[in-house]
Amino acid sequence: MKLGLLVCLTRNADIEDKIKRVAEMGFASCQITCWDMDCYTEDMAARIKNALDTYGVTLSTFWCGWSGKAAWNFYEGQRTLGLVPAERRAERVADLKRGSDFARALGATQIATHAGFLPEDPNSPVYAEVVTALREVAAHAKANGQYFLFETGQETPTTLLRTIEDIGLDNLGINLDPANFILYGKANPVDALDTIGRYVRDVHAKDGLYPTNGRELGAEVALGEGKVNFPLLIAGLKALGYDGPITIEREIEGEKQIADIISGKALLEKLI
Ligand code: MG
User: Fold this and answer.
1) CA 19 / ligand 1 centre spacing (Å)
2) Which of 67, 165, 183, 229 could connect to 217 by a Cys-Cys bridge, CB 3.0–4.6 Å?
3) Taking ligand 1, which is a single-atom ion, which protein residues have CB atoms under 5 Å away?
4) Beta strand 207-208 with 200-205: parallel, antiparallel or unpaired?
5) What is the value of pTM for the model shown?
6) What is the CATH number of domain 2-271?
7) pLDDT (tens digit per residue) in 144-176
């Protein structure tokens, strides 16, 4: 396993500086996440490739956002996230295809996204529509030589497994975010490996707490301060033969983010 760091691509911040920081902090790989589709230009692709080469950093997965409102809670989230809301679906399928094309320009062989609150009821007509839309995106990624990875969190492991089975393509995988299973109250991430572990192709090292009310996600916290049992999780991944990246994600900004990344890296280095 090798440690990586998640960085965010935006128009206003210098991506070269962010990739340089990845290397300076001692990480071998990174994921790049992007929610601004206007960044998907040839010029930006060239800048990123150049920075990755210059600083000797590998891009493990390009994480594609999508346009429109996103609310990260249990009420609005059902209606706003991913490919589940019907009124946004076609636009977001197009966003994800563009993300896949941009990732191809970067040489990325994996893309990931949040698909939304996948319906737990496989008989729901929405479930069939979402599976069809996801198959279209995953087929596009396949044509670009990429795996399509589900970011975990908004559904139970069983529903995620069923969705992968029903899409039925051979380029599907999972970006395991163990904290998300906890923040959304959907599973213990260590136990989830029994169900979906064989599909894991990238990992977000993130920690968090379970929800304490029925409307809002649990809180994300620094690695080691939450409910993710990283010793058991890393051991479980090893038992599955996983030898891919462990990519630190800390969803805050500023000095505390840097400090938490440094302490998280030290914790993980003892485990991998
Ligand atoms: Mg994540």
Assistant:
1) 18
2) 183
3) 177, 204, 249
4) unpaired
5) 0.97
6) 3.20.20.150
7) 999 999 999 999 999 999 999 999 999 999 999
